[in-house]
Amino acid sequence: MSPLKRTGLATALAAGLAVAGAAHADIKVGFIGALATDTGQSTLRGAQIAIDELNEAGGVLGGQKIVLVTADTGQDVTEGIKAYEYLAETEEVDFIISGCIDDVSLGWLPRMVEYQIPTLDTWTSNIGIIDKLVEDYESYKPYFMNVAADEALATLYVDFGKDILAGKMGWKKTVIVQEDTAFGNAINGLVTQLLAPEAGIEVLDTIVYDVATVDFSPIFNRAVDSGADFIYLISSVNSQVISSQYVKLQVPLAMTGVNVAALGQEYWEDTGGAGGGISTLSPVPSVGFALDPVSKAFAEKYVARYGNERPKFPHFNGFNAYHGIKQAFAAAEVAGGFNNTSWVTAMENQDVVLMKDGEVWLRYGFWKPGEIEERTQRTYPHNIHFDISPPYDDGAPSMVVIQWYEDGTNAVVYPEKYATGEFKVPSWVPSK
User: Fold this and answer.
1) Where are the alpha helices (DSSP H) in 226-265?
2) What would the pLDDT profile of 219-251 be if each residue is shown by its tens digit?
3) In this prediction, what percent of the chain has a pLDDT beyond 70?
C-alpha cells in the first residue's frame, strides 16, 4: 500500500473514531447557585435526580450521558458572575440550571447574553429579567424562568388581600417591612401599586431594613405606631431572624407577605419553634401543598435519597429543577442539541400538565413571545405559564399563600382550590 493511501486510510479511521467518540461524548449541565443554602441544594438535587433518571433510561441524543458540574455563588453577585464564567469558559457546559436569588441572576445575566448558553432559572422571579426578553428577545432568548414572575406573584397577593385580609378580616391598612434587595424593591413596587386600588388596602408606611439587621424591635415598634392593621413583610435573606423576633416579641399585629425562610420544612426548627402565625406567599409546590402523583413520586425519591440532610424535603425550586431538566433535554432531542435558536423554539413548545383527581393541578409550560396574558394584558416570554384567574383550570396558580400555625404545622390557606387549612390570626394578636 502506498504511503498516500496508508495516510488516507489513517485519516478516514481517525475521522470515524472521532465521530463515534462524539456520539458517546458527555453532555454537560452546569449548576449555578449557593451551595450552602437550602434553595441552592434543592435546585441541585432536583436536577441530579432528573439527570440520573435520564441516564438510567439510556442517555440522551443518541445515548450520550449527562454530567452535572457545579459553580458556587455564595449568594454573592460578584461570585455569581465568576461562577457563570467558570461554567462557560472552563467547563464549557451545554446548559445551565440556576438556583440563584434575584440579585445574583441579574449579575450574571449579561454573561448569558455574551455566551448564549441556554439557561433555566428555578428560583428568581424578577420581572425585570422577563422585561428584557420583551425588549430584546434575540439577545435574551436562551433564558427561561420556570417560576412565576413578580407581577403574577403580586396579583395573587392582591386577590388574597381582597378576599381574606380585607374581605374576611376587615383589614384596610398595612405597613410594608422590606429588606434592601432587588427582590424586596421589586415586590414592594408591585404590591404598593395594586393593594389600594384593587384590594382596598392602604399602605401607610414602608420600612426598609438592611439584610444584616439583628434587632427588629425598633422596626416592629414603628409598624405598630403606624396604625396599620397588619404587617406586610418582604424578606428573602435571613428571614428566620425577623420571623422568630416577631413571635418572641409578641408583636400585636398579624404578619403576612413574602417570607422565604417559611417556604421550607426546616423553618420551624430554624426559628426554634418561634414561627407560628406567620403566613407567606409561596411558589408551588409549597409546604402544605397537596401533590399530584408525578410530583409526589419525585418528592418520595428525593426524601429517600436526601432525607437525612437538609433540606429534607425539596423546596419549590427542587420540583422546578426536576421538571426543567426533563423539559430542557426533551427540547434538545427535538432540536438535535442545545443549538440556540432551534433549542429555544423547542423549549418554548414544552408543556407538561400534571393532573390530580381529574383536575389540572400544576403546569410546566412557557409563555411564548407576543402571547398576551388576559388579566394583566401583557406578555411574559419564557416565563412559566401561570394562571392568575380562578378556577385555575389553565395551569397552576402563580403562587399560593401558606401559613405556619402555633403548633408547628402548616397548610395552604389560599386560593380555595388548593387550600388544606384556614387563615388564622396568632393568639397574641388582639381582635379588631
Assistant:
1) 239-248
2) 999 999 999 999 999 998 889 999 999 999 999
3) 94
φ/ψ (deg, to 5) at 41: -65, -35
Statement: the pTM of the whole predicted model exceeds 0.85 = yes
Residue at grid coordinates 420544612: 265
Tell me the three cell numbers of residue 29: 449541565
Contacts within 8 Å (CB) and 24+ apart, 218-224: 219/177, 220/245, 220/246, 220/249, 220/251, 222/175, 223/175, 223/177, 223/251, 223/253, 224/251, 224/252, 224/253
Dihedral angle of Cα 314, 320, 324, 325, to the nearest 10 degrees: -10
DSSP 8-state secondary structure symbol assigned to residue 367: P
Average pLDDT of span 376-381: 94
Domains and CATH numbers, the chain: 22-149+291-372 (3.40.50.2300), 151-289+398-418 (3.40.50.2300)
Q: 127: closest CA among 104, 108, 153? A: 153
Are 72 and 110 in contact by the 8 Å Cβ rule? The answer is no
Give dist(CA 213, CA 189) in Å, integer.
Answer: 22
Q: What would the pLDDT profile of 315-331 be if each residue is shown by its tens digit?
A: 999 999 999 999 999 99
